[in-house]
Design brief:
Shape: globular
Number of strands: 19
Bound molecules: zinc ion
Strand content: 25-35%
Order of helices and strands: HEEEEEHEEEEEEHEHEHEEEHEHEHE
Radius of gyration: 21 Å
Structural class: alpha/beta
Number of helices: 8
Length: 339
Amino acid sequence: MAATPRPEDWIRVTPLGLWCEPGGFHVDPLRAVERAVVTHGHSDHARGGHADVLATPETLAIMALRLREDGTSGRRQPLPYGETVRIGEVDVRLVPAGHVLGSAQVVMDYRGSRVVVSGDYKRTPDPTCASFEPVPCDAFVTEATFGLPVFRHPPPAGEIARLLASVRRFPERSHLVGVYSLGKAQRVLSLLRAAGYHEPVFIHGALAGCCDLYRAHGIDLGETEPAAGRKRDEFRGRIVMAPPSATADVWSRRVPDPVVAHASGWMRVRQRARQRQVELPLVVSDHADWDELLLTVQEVGAPKVWVTHGAEEAMVYWCRRQGYDARALSLVGRDEEEE
Ligand SMILES: [Zn+2]
Ligand SMILES: [Zn+2]
């Protein structure tokens, strides 16, 4: 009987990203390929033009919406969480990553060797998507967007309470909250509802498509109304949500005297909040913070940890000190996460 292969013998880093050789597919490839397994719908992971795509049904729906692909150019294969499919010589399973709707870790089994690619993930509960499940493996490919000890995300309910306190304190002003359209907008809406805020929220047109898609998947976001076509005074005392870029451009002029807030893990960095003229930074992240990253490495128990997609060095250093065989995967072409 053949020896069990080592993870590095069958999962490789190529200029296009992670390549699973015995499966003949890339995970989250950076350019169009024949066969892609996609972890989730953010644009730095889900690109257009692949011939075959395997992803969760939710991620395929998000890709169809955001990439305007009609699906006729190739095969779109939905794989619900927990089901296994054989691709080439590899068994592939998708497991919830807790990042955004449909986000998945890719679990790959090949001749007794298991590699898990985390995609992006977080451990904080989020009612807008299924919760992360740790999967024991031989090699764990982990993201490290916030892979520095300075990144410790506060409980999101507290950040939302600060937003609502500001809304009460400044009833004549509007609150313009910068949120990315996939994941963050819906999470902030659901956090507002959980905090007992049930007023209609005005939303920028760029957020509408993903909000509708979440609702179609049974996620309750409460009442939203289009911000377009409103009189300025209608925004007073209300919460308005828009993509972060729109909070500083001409679009924002329709909102009178706004308190500009951004909801992002990057808001932990005060300088960044200042640069973007954010008056009310809200540290709400859809990525694991430093403690969650380390907890996850320990829970999956993989002897090999491959760190990518962020601040690799500190995590690699920590992992090695703990006895893991850790290294940074240098994947080129990753933009800063839509956070
Ligand atoms: Zn993402
Ligand atoms: Zn990402």
